[in-house]
Design goal:
alpha+beta, Pnp Oxidase, Chain A, seven-stranded antiparallel beta sheet
Protein backbone atom coordinates (compact mmCIF):
# COMPACT_ATOMS: atom_id res chain seq x y z
CA UNK A 1 0.00 0.00 0.00
CA UNK A 2 1.43 3.36 -1.04
CA UNK A 3 2.13 5.63 1.95
CA UNK A 4 1.17 8.79 0.05
CA UNK A 5 -2.22 7.24 -0.74
CA UNK A 6 -2.69 6.43 2.95
CA UNK A 7 -1.74 10.02 3.81
CA UNK A 8 -4.39 11.35 1.40
CA UNK A 9 -7.02 9.10 2.98
CA UNK A 10 -6.29 10.64 6.40
CA UNK A 11 -7.63 14.00 5.18
CA UNK A 12 -11.33 14.70 4.78
CA UNK A 13 -12.49 15.10 1.22
CA UNK A 14 -14.78 13.69 -1.39
CA UNK A 15 -14.31 10.13 -2.58
CA UNK A 16 -15.86 9.53 -6.00
CA UNK A 17 -16.89 6.03 -7.10
CA UNK A 18 -17.44 5.42 -10.82
CA UNK A 19 -18.71 2.47 -12.82
CA UNK A 20 -18.23 2.77 -16.56
CA UNK A 21 -20.41 0.01 -17.99
CA UNK A 22 -23.63 2.04 -17.87
CA UNK A 23 -24.53 4.66 -20.47
CA UNK A 24 -23.93 7.19 -19.06
CA UNK A 25 -21.43 6.14 -16.41
CA UNK A 26 -22.75 6.09 -12.85
CA UNK A 27 -21.02 8.25 -10.26
CA UNK A 28 -21.59 8.37 -6.49
CA UNK A 29 -19.73 10.21 -3.75
CA UNK A 30 -18.87 9.64 -0.13
CA UNK A 31 -16.40 11.08 2.40
CA UNK A 32 -12.84 9.91 2.97
CA UNK A 33 -13.48 9.61 6.70
CA UNK A 34 -16.13 6.95 5.95
CA UNK A 35 -13.71 4.70 4.02
CA UNK A 36 -11.80 1.94 5.78
CA UNK A 37 -8.58 1.02 3.99
CA UNK A 38 -7.12 -2.46 4.47
CA UNK A 39 -4.16 -4.11 2.74
CA UNK A 40 -6.24 -5.20 -0.24
CA UNK A 41 -9.67 -3.59 0.13
CA UNK A 42 -11.66 -0.42 0.57
CA UNK A 43 -14.76 -0.75 2.75
CA UNK A 44 -17.36 1.97 2.19
CA UNK A 45 -20.69 2.29 4.02
CA UNK A 46 -23.65 2.39 1.65
CA UNK A 47 -27.18 3.58 2.29
CA UNK A 48 -27.94 4.30 -1.38
CA UNK A 49 -25.55 3.59 -4.27
CA UNK A 50 -28.28 1.63 -6.06
CA UNK A 51 -27.07 2.64 -9.54
CA UNK A 52 -23.60 1.26 -8.77
CA UNK A 53 -25.10 -1.92 -7.32
CA UNK A 54 -27.21 -2.47 -10.45
CA UNK A 55 -24.15 -2.00 -12.67
CA UNK A 56 -22.31 -4.79 -10.84
CA UNK A 57 -24.71 -7.35 -12.35
CA UNK A 58 -23.07 -6.74 -15.75
CA UNK A 59 -19.57 -5.61 -14.73
CA UNK A 60 -18.26 -5.02 -11.22
CA UNK A 61 -15.17 -3.04 -12.20
CA UNK A 62 -14.98 0.31 -10.45
CA UNK A 63 -12.69 3.32 -10.29
CA UNK A 64 -12.42 5.39 -7.12
CA UNK A 65 -10.94 8.91 -7.22
CA UNK A 66 -9.51 10.48 -4.05
CA UNK A 67 -7.33 13.49 -3.39
CA UNK A 68 -6.19 16.05 -0.86
CA UNK A 69 -4.54 19.42 -1.26
CA UNK A 70 -2.95 18.80 2.16
CA UNK A 71 -0.55 16.15 0.79
CA UNK A 72 2.39 16.95 -1.51
CA UNK A 73 1.73 15.66 -5.02
CA UNK A 74 3.79 15.24 -8.17
CA UNK A 75 3.54 18.95 -9.10
CA UNK A 76 3.42 20.59 -5.67
CA UNK A 77 0.65 20.83 -3.08
CA UNK A 78 -2.14 18.35 -3.72
CA UNK A 79 -2.05 14.61 -4.38
CA UNK A 80 -4.70 12.54 -6.11
CA UNK A 81 -5.17 8.87 -6.86
CA UNK A 82 -7.31 6.53 -8.92
CA UNK A 83 -8.02 3.18 -7.32
CA UNK A 84 -9.05 0.44 -9.76
CA UNK A 85 -10.73 -2.70 -8.55
CA UNK A 86 -13.80 -4.89 -8.40
CA UNK A 87 -16.71 -4.30 -6.09
CA UNK A 88 -19.51 -6.09 -4.34
CA UNK A 89 -22.06 -5.13 -1.72
CA UNK A 90 -22.16 -7.12 1.51
CA UNK A 91 -24.88 -7.08 4.16
CA UNK A 92 -23.53 -9.62 6.63
CA UNK A 93 -20.25 -10.75 8.14
CA UNK A 94 -17.44 -9.25 10.20
CA UNK A 95 -16.71 -6.31 7.88
CA UNK A 96 -20.41 -5.43 7.74
CA UNK A 97 -20.80 -5.66 11.53
CA UNK A 98 -17.73 -3.46 12.13
CA UNK A 99 -18.89 -0.81 9.67
CA UNK A 100 -22.50 -0.93 10.96
CA UNK A 101 -21.22 -0.20 14.48
CA UNK A 102 -19.53 2.97 13.19
CA UNK A 103 -22.24 4.00 10.72
CA UNK A 104 -25.64 2.81 12.00
CA UNK A 105 -27.41 4.31 8.98
CA UNK A 106 -25.78 1.98 6.41
CA UNK A 107 -27.74 -0.83 4.77
CA UNK A 108 -24.78 -2.48 3.02
CA UNK A 109 -21.03 -2.14 2.70
CA UNK A 110 -19.38 -1.59 -0.65
CA UNK A 111 -16.30 -3.80 -0.60
CA UNK A 112 -13.76 -2.96 -3.29
CA UNK A 113 -10.98 -5.45 -3.93
CA UNK A 114 -8.04 -3.27 -5.03
CA UNK A 115 -6.32 -4.18 -8.32
CA UNK A 116 -4.05 -1.14 -8.46
CA UNK A 117 -3.60 2.36 -7.11
CA UNK A 118 -2.36 4.98 -9.55
CA UNK A 119 -1.15 8.43 -8.48
CA UNK A 120 -2.54 11.00 -10.91
CA UNK A 121 -1.29 14.28 -9.38
Amino acid sequence: MDQKFLDVMKHEGVVTIVTINAQPAHVVNTWASYVKVTDKKLLIPAAGMHSIEQDFAADNHVTVAVGSKEVEGTQGPGAGFHVHGTGKFVDAGDDFDEMKAKFPWLSRVLEIEIDDIEQRI
